[in-house]
């Protein structure tokens, strides 16, 4: 049986300059997936021409180890 994931829009979406946004990290966390698998799916989905350029932006996170 499939597990149903339940969350509120505020848990996955925030507004930046009036536009709804989320991150692949947040999607992976909320759906219980590995981040690398979410990234792979984003890159390999068959979007209409120009969709990625208008809707998906690469953000680089710096992780500092102590």
Structure, explained:
The chain has helices at residues 9-12, 24-31, 35-44, 51-55, and strands spanning 14-16, 19-21. The protein is mainly alpha-helical and 66 residues long. Helix 2 (24-31) crosses helix 3 (35-44).
Describe this protein with a few key phrases.
two-stranded antiparallel sheet; mainly alpha; 41% helix; 66 residues
| Count of separate DSSP helical elements | 4
Proportion of β residues? 5-15%
The parts where pLDDT drops under 50 for at least 5 residues are none
Percent range of helical residues: 40-55%
Shape: globular
Q: How many domains, in number, for the residues? A: 1
Mean of residue pLDDT values: 86
Computed over alpha carbons, the radius of gyration is: 14 Å
Biggest sheet, in brief?
2 strands, antiparallel
Q: How far do the termini sit from each other?
A: 42 Å
| Secondary-structure element order, N to C | HEEHHH
The largest sheet has its strands arranged as 1-2
Helix-strand makeup class: mainly alpha
Give the beta-strand count.
2
Structure described in brief:
The chain is mostly helical and 66 residues long. The protein is 41% helix and 9% strand. The protein has a two-stranded antiparallel sheet with strand order 1-2.
Which SSEs are present, and which pair or pack?
Blueprint: H1 9-12, E1 14-16, E2 19-21, H2 24-31, H3 35-44, H4 51-55
Antiparallel strand pairs: 1-2
Helix pairs in contact: 2-3
